[in-house]
């Protein structure tokens, strides 16, 4: 016999855990249905996240601003510490990418132009022969993705929620005002469904008789290099090419280097394209007085975008009780606190948070794809 819930959440990454924590603490009986053998495998568990106010469009920036206070002072009964840490970002440009840096400076908030000499003082490995301009964003923060994700999963369980792994949703039907889901671990009944399945969001929608919205999974690759100055580099800022052709984040005596790839792929367990990574490492090496001689390891993850690049949060018009929470792209971690709270209120049809102005709610609505 199927277990009955108020809400079944498909997925167990950061989006699913965030809305699950919100709903569970509000007294709803919930279950997370994860297709893999553990939560957060494909995107959340492969994120080198950093909180950057200057990322994204107006919707992303509004959600990021609203998330910041939560990250800075998370609930003490769930988190023992702030999930933010000091880092800063150094945007750098060669001659070809200087116009991109000028655009960033014109549009960004809290971005400070600095001299080449100041940039090299912050990052001693920069190549003075290549570097022509730089800007510093001192308020960019490291974001403890694993700590945040595990904290919300803990909150779900403390409030009586469940997390089921190896529970891929095979089909779903809405009968007599509630949903019946067939999963690999058995049937589940729920009054409402949240589709937080990441790259598989459209697949889940179709299995539940809902029109897909055109989600676009894109691969992002990371190569891990040993730092030539492990202790000193722990305090260096993240480096970002103003032309968005590579970035590097210091991490525990290593460099996490990405070619900033966004190759459209089918939903799958992502793997690195060696040629794409090699090209990104070459561009990084050109800007540095640092020869890449050894790659310690590498990985790839999926970032999932709707066609217009703005996340989706709201009920589908196709099927009663089917709620979209998808398409957070590369901004899913840094917007997660605010988006989780907003989505929970939308799902429960209660008063929205004060930051949720009407334009913001409208910009997230799945109605823009359901013509």
From TrEMBL:
<protein>
    <submittedName>
        <fullName>Sarcosine oxidase</fullName>
    </submittedName>
</protein>
<dbReference type="Pfam" id="PF01266">
    <property type="entry name" value="DAO"/>
</dbReference>
<dbReference type="GO" id="GO:0005737">
    <property type="term" value="C:cytoplasm"/>
</dbReference>
<dbReference type="InterPro" id="IPR006076">
    <property type="entry name" value="FAD-dep_OxRdtase"/>
</dbReference>
<feature type="domain" description="FAD dependent oxidoreductase">
    <location>
        <begin position="6"/>
        <end position="344"/>
    </location>
</feature>
<keyword id="KW-0560">Oxidoreductase</keyword>
<dbReference type="InterPro" id="IPR036188">
    <property type="entry name" value="FAD/NAD-bd_sf"/>
</dbReference>
<dbReference type="GO" id="GO:0016491">
    <property type="term" value="F:oxidoreductase activity"/>
</dbReference>
